[in-house]
Design goal:
Layout (H helix, E strand, L loop, with lengths): L7 H17 L3 H8 L2 E3 L2 E6 L2 E5 L6 E3 L4 E2 L2 H13 L9 E3 L6 H20 L3 H10 L3 E2 L5 E8 L2 E8 L8 E7 L8 H16 L1
Length: 204
């Protein structure tokens, strides 16, 4: 007898509804202060990779501020979870691999197979292209690997992407690293989604 698999779209909607319900009972002024965001009469301005988004309270509606266009639901969930999770701890300014994050081993294989392998497949023979993509997305070049960038994903959460070029002997590799205090700002499942989003944008 086969088991019915959970509908991923349904799971996503449940997560979004729960985030909005939790946000409705939160203190927006406190959340903004802990997350390093700006509270305005219209809501909280929360930058996502440098792009300002407006988060309303209590409804939890999220729009891209310059245009007023509704944000993608995945960005809505990340921003709401960020505001709900942020505890004000200063960034650690040191990096952790995904598997080193809280419960990171649970998602590590899938994360490596999606985000990191996507970057390696796209750029291991095109380091110059990786540098162009990182700069175009607003990354700050780092002196790590053959090429690397630091991205300010959220006001108090940074991500780094590292690339090693492949050759005749060894395949290219890519790694996505997170500030060591990332768990103070997002659940690990959301950090995986953040890394997937960044890898997809760089490859696109």
């Amino acid at each position: 007898m086969s088991q019915t698999q959970p509908d991923p779209h349904r799971r996503f909607q449940v997560a979004l509804d729960q985030a909005r319900a939790d946000w409705a009972t939160a203190d927006p002024a406190r959340a903004a202060a802990l997350a390093g965001c700006h509270l305005t009469p219209d809501g909280i301005v929360a930058p996502f990779f440098g792009r300002p988004h407006l988060v309303t309270h209590p409804a939890g509606q999220v729009t891209f501020q310059p245009t007023g266009k509704p944000a993608h639901p995945s960005i809505v969930i990340v921003l709401l979870h960020y505001l709900l999770t942020a505890d004000g701890v200063a960034p650690a300014d040191r990096w952790l691999a995904f598997r080193e994050l809280p419960d990171g081993m649970f998602y590590a294989q899938a994360f490596a197979g999606h985000a990191e392998s996507e970057l390696a497949h796209k750029f291991s023979a095109d380091v110059a292209g990786f540098r162009r993509a990182g700069a175009a997305l607003g990354g700050e070049a780092l002196d790590l690997a053959d090429a690397s960038f630091r991205f300010q994903a959220l006001p108090r959460l940074a991500i780094a992407t590292l690339l090693w070029a492949g050759d005749e002997e060894f395949p290219g590799q890519a790694r996505i690293l997170f500030d060591a205090h990332a768990g103070h700002y997002l659940p690990t499942e959301d950090l995986a989604g953040l890394g997937d989003w960044l890898a997809h944008r760089l490859c696109r």
